[in-house]
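ingest -> fold -> write
write: protein_1
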Amino acid sequence: MKNNHGSLSVSGSISLRVDGHCDTVAALKNGKAKHIDLENIENFTDLQFFAIYIKNENDTNNAVQENEEYYSYYREILEKYEKIVPILSAKDINELKIGQVGSILAMENSEPLATDSEAIFRFIDKGYRSFGITWSNDNSFGGGANTDTGLKDLGRNLLRAMNKLPVLVDLAHMNKKSFFDSMEILEKPPIVTHGCCYSLCAHRRNLTDDAMKLLAGAKGLFGITFVDSFLKEGGNATIDRIVDHIIYAADIMGLKNVCLGSDFDGANLPYDMCGQKDIGKLKEQMLKRDFSNDEIDDIMGNNLKNYLEKILEC
């Protein structure tokens, strides 16, 4: 890939080189962005997932309209910041130049896909490459973390279609039943872009040990997030608590199946982290906890980069 200081090709980088989730598009549009500075983003990442969150979970028409508004704003971001380059294929990743940041466009809550069976293809044409099937409540496809609803028939059909498409299937936000229903259908490795370990923090959004084992068995990835309330019950977590979850997930799943999904601009962070500029502190804590530079590089970039290349290679 690139050969500038701090890139994926440089062992011991202090930067989060691949980040599996942020809500910066919506935060910027709503005047609330504070964790990612797009003017300087290339100093901290090579590949950034930009999620477009859809608030409407049970109203397909309004979900489509909401999506279009945020998508239009995302296109404005790309026009303003030419260094942010859409990633549509594995080839695009390896063709990034020095100073460029690859953007993986993600849909968080796939309700806009419920209009008809061809919708998925239209959104792929728009540049979406990652799809979170649910958000926190029920939608047309299944149940989110706030519910006990499993995967619905429309969700089963969507996943069967995605099995044959060059897209990431993101199972973040699903409840346990819809998660396990999905795993029975998927034929390629899925990802949970942002969550933490239930055994360390009993939050409904976190993955249980059996879910992590199943995900690892499918060669999927688990993105440990920086959301304060997911890291520690009652919140008030520290960066070192992120390391606790990384270690726990790596022990259960294997280090190669763990990555990071910050949720920058979408949640409260540990009290000793202000945003992307503080990512070096996470590496410092990992070094203190006996991670090698190579292991840190894998978790902060290589694992998710390699996964992306595999899923997007067709």
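write: protein_2
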Amino acid sequence: MPGSWRPRLLIAFTLAAAVLPSAAGMAKASRAATVHDAVWAYEAAHPGQAVPVIVQTFGDADASALVTAAGGDVRGDLGIIHAVAADVPAGRLAALASASSVRWISLDGPVTSTSHPDGRGNGAEDSPDTGADLPPSVYTQEIGADGVSADGQDGTGIAVAVVDTGIVKSADFGRPSRVTATFGGPGDGYGHGSHVAGLIAGDGANSDGRYAGVAPGASLVDVKVGDDTGAATISDVINGLAFVLANKDRLNIRVVNLSLSVDTAQSYTTDPLDAAVELLTFRGVLVVVAAGNAGTASDAVTYAPANDPFVLTVGAVDDRGTATTADDTVPPWSGRGTTQDGFAKPEIYAPGRHLVSVLSPKSVLAGQQPESVVGKHYFSLSGTSMAAGVTSGAAALVFGAHGDWTPGQVKTALVSGAQPVPSAAYARLARVDAANAQDAPADLTSTIKPNYLLLQAAGIANPETIDWSSIRWGSIRWGSIRWGSIRWGSIRWGSIRWGFVPE
């Protein structure tokens, strides 16, 4: 683009009333092409306030310069998806959207859970957990992980990144600690991330093994994107995923756990968080995601990242404290359905009700639910967050047995090896032993259309015109693609509620 373009652009914005169409006219013209409806809704609901957005651009376009020219403030560079997080003044969004190099503008909203009551008070036969009276966990037996660990496959050598509220120091994570790297600061003042991490790779040291996780030999990467109140935004999560991408080879990160959900539904083909999780998938990392806790609501599985067809989305079952699946049930709050793009979710289920795992002492959750504290070191929680953690541990065991498999192959193996839940014909329970026994399964995601924004960041200008049936994504060497420079900025906290159901 000619060197004089930027001054002309600045003049155009300064004299917008005389030079450009009305804001309303520009908004109408750009609404369908480049801006998600939630952005306009936020602008209308917050008159006079700047709108938090993620701006993605074509090719080598300078998104920061475009935002600045529109009078906005750039909060951070989201290099892995060729975008920036920014605050744009009300009334300037339409002008920004009209720039030919802007591909998509979405709301940088809070990451939230869709929590649902756990059934108590509605005829459920159980009562609140009572700490030391709880029996040992059985979820590792339910998913066939106990036998795999007995054979010496405990996840050693495999790292799982936990993108959450942090991981507390605990003997359950080894001495020396198997938490090999930290992003976003130490500790877990909220308590959610530690619980998920314990389900993945806790070794039960504080309980003589009663509450060991699925892959007790695996290492953990603490990617803290939620603050001590649990608050975070979409761009915070994408920054955390960028850290995973930058360190995956050094730490051998093969699995990422995302027990969270965005607040705004949109197609996976344009969602910026879906673009980020797909990039990780294509670079060799399986992304395991909670299905959410909205039950059978019409939009239950339409929110990123659970709506993405490349990730492994997990629903919850109640193991009812027994190692047999004969009495398993699917809690009414476990999210399930069809995404806006026609994909059935979740693909797999795992235990996710009344699971005991690592406690972060003095955390927000411990203070809110003291009746769920188990002894001095553990805590009981329910939700698809927990089911995702169990499944991330299972994926670590499969990668430990088949280090040359792609994320798509591990996903296929877990889904095809899953066992039917007798009480719910639509649900299939993860089984590590059955997944490991398979012989190099096909990648069933290999012909699905990837996120358009991700492809354009890779230099594919018009992905809508591609004959997808002729492409096998598993054969592309994504490591040779330059995805843009990653610049680390300070994390901006928004508001988040993590994907668990209060006990």
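write: annotation protein_2
Confidence is low (pLDDT under 50) at residues 1-32, 114-131, 473-498.
The longest strand covers residues 51-57.
pipeline exit 0
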